[in-house]
Amino acid sequence: MAGVWTLFSSVPRFSTYIPRHLKNGRKALLLQQAVRCISSFKASDLEIEFCSPDQLKPKPPVSELVFGKNFTDYMLKIEWDGNHGWGKPRIVPFQNLTLHPAAKVLHYATELFEGMKAYRGVDGEIRLFRPDRNMARMNRTAERSALPTFDGEELIELIKRQVQLEQEWVPHSESSSLYIRPTMIGTEEILRVDKSNKALLFIILCPVGPYYPTGFKPVSLLADPAHVRAWPGGCGAMKMGSNYGPTLAIQKLAESKGLQQVLWLFGDDHKISEVGAMNLMVYIDKGDGGRELITPPLDGIILPGVTRQSLLELARSWGEFDVTEREMTMGELLQLESEGRLLEIFGSGTACVVCPVAEIHYGNHVLKIPTMEHENPLNQRFFRALTDIQYGRVPHEWAIPIE
Predict the structure, then answer these.
(1) Cβ atoms within 10 A of the Cβ of 53, count?
(2) Would the N or C end of the chain have less CB density within 10 A of its end CB?
(3) For 251, which DSSP code?
């Protein structure tokens, strides 16, 4: 804390806010709070290193886009160290990273990331979708990872400038978009299990095509309680790479059984949690003439998805059915299916918006869900409503224009 005190007390406009009569402990607490609020890079300090003509890459046609394969010409980089704080933001030609072999990220998974998109609207204007939600989640994950936090509004402004610079990489298509991947890694060069005293925040961009190039195809899920994605007190609610790597072998297990995704369960009563890397929604007939949309609560093992929150807010604004965040078990799903009251199950996420589910393989049971067999499936209504906002067909405060 002495180092933090020296840093902030040496800056007049910050030290004047700390009353001299306070005890050192109270000063330390106020300074910690100040660090969280004001220790950030500034978009106004942005430096840009432009590509030479031979560094510029051809842009692939939308029909050839593969998720996460084609990257744009530039990237954003911001360095941080514990002694000097954040450095100046720099947009530089897309390049490999150089890391010391002892960098913390390589040994202790000191890392986090976000996923968001820029959309070219029907009017030609480019928009971001609720970027403030991504920034808030990124800062929460940074705190949990013992990595530095920052001012989310400053990073949003930098993302806007990066997308402005690369606006021709945003597909001219209402079914495609520019994927934005903010990432932060610990880079301190020391093999010690401790927080990293150095970090790098970088952002890379890649154009992505339609998630469903041949139309919506409901997926089948493996629900095996032997495999757990997250647990209370862990990091399931955080967007960090260590949540994803351990799931890949189970995903392959599902594929070996002819299934496409994993339905993650938790606890002795086999509570449902997430589907693959998506949040989960269940739409049911309540049996009294009403209907209900149910999703697991944000209890620490569920990622607070931006799409999840948006779908819940849309549904509540419609006021046509109950919207509930509560625990739900496989036993309840089995009963609902047997009574013919299980209407739809679908995942939600940035990449797909919604992902309909047709079957769940659970022990000796195969649950059949008529998700796409209704005249107007709810998941498709959600898809249209959200993409109408993202592509500017419907004006909405969630769509943030890049001027």
Answers:
(1) 5
(2) C
(3) H
Does an H or E element contain 125, and which? none
Secondary structure of residue 71 in the 3-state scheme: coil
What is the distance of C-alpha 177 from the center of its chain?
16
Beta strand pairing status for 342-349 and 85-86?
unpaired
Structure tokens that stand for 118 in this block = 């820029």
Q: Which amino acid is at 225?
A: P
User: Could you count the other beta carbons within 10 Å of the beta carbon of residue 388?
Assistant: 16
Q: Coil, helix or strand for 36? A: helix
Helix (H) or strand (E) holding 31: helix 24-38
Distance CA 215, CA 151 (A): 40
Largest Cα span, the chain: 70
Structure confidence by residue, pLDDT tens digits, 322-355: 999 999 999 999 999 999 999 999 999 999 999 9
pTM of the complete model: 0.89
- Could you tell me how far CA 12 lies from the centroid of its own chain? 38
Distance CA 31, CA 29 (A): 5
Give buried/exposed letters for 344-361 (b at 16+ CB in 10 A, else e).
bbbbbbbbbbbbbbbbbb
Q: How many residues does the chain have?
A: 403
353-368 per-position pLDDT tens digit: 999 999 999 999 999 9
C-alpha span between 238 and 43 (Å, rounded): 26
SS3 content of the chain, % helix, strand, coil (to 5): 30, 25, 45
DSSP classification of residue 8 = H
Place of tokens 């049996």: 287
Q: How many helices (H) and strands (E) does the chain have?
A: 10, 19
- Cα(68)–Cα(181) distance, integer angstroms: 10
CB 114 within 8 A of CB 182: yes
